[in-house]
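Bump. Still looking for Very-long-chain (3R)-3-hydroxyacyl-CoA dehydratase structure tokens.
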Amino acid sequence: MSSKATTRSSSSRGNTKTSPATKNDLANKYLIFYNVASGLAWAYVLVFALIHITNIDGRAAQVASSGPVTASTYVGKLLSSSASFLRSASSATKAHSRWWLPGFLQAPVARMATVYGRVGPQVALVQSFAVLEVAHVALGLVRSSLPTTAMQVTSRLLLVWAVVEQSATARANPAFASMIIAWSFSEIIRYSFYTFNLLGLQPPQWLVWIRYSAFYVLYPIGAGSEWFLTWISLPNSSPVPGFRSWYQGAWGFMDYLRGIMVLVWAPALYVLFTYMMGQRRKVLGGGRKLKDN
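Sorry for the wait, here they are.
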């Protein structure tokens, strides 16, 4: 009798399922780890981009002369794989005269044009991990709109893989630096804000204010850079990229995709910008403070 009871007891313990509270705790710990790791990754990108632009370590010229390694090549080296990756342009883009800039800005802007060589592949990798955010929403770990999250992540992935990765002109343009700097600040703020909430802590008021105010500056810089990089990645036809080559039938599938991106970027920015303005009014205008965006 005792043996049977023991057997039933052991069997019962063996079939015990993880309680909802335990699952929630594990999910919360995972999300904390994800947000902290993502914030640190974007901080890495920001710091090394600024180091390159200011040439604090004196390596800007060396990075520029060695030429950029595309993200697909970088991944290939990391994985030691012989698989074929996305093509990379072999010819370097000639530096254009920036006579219209004040003298003290000439050197920093010139270094901005070579930032890809310092952090370009890392940006592609860090941004690619953002696909997990779509999974977080789909699995119910995060309360957010799945279509909105998917569109935001997809647009970034298109920028790093379908535009910058494919275009030597985009990789060698200062707009790449301004884009990733805007992205980095935005993501560091966002992930820091989410981490406080996941830890059950009230975010500092200054962080709340920055979370719902920085977009006034960061969105135009980031989205403007994104649009410009997409535009200059179209097949060249002087004086306007894309138009004459499109008329002559020189566009491929990816060119049409980038052309569509050029057309929809401004309306998309308007929708996102007005949405954030509404969120700001709710949070900073005396409304209920939102923990999720």
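Residues 22-78+102-285 form one domain.

Edit: fixed formatting.
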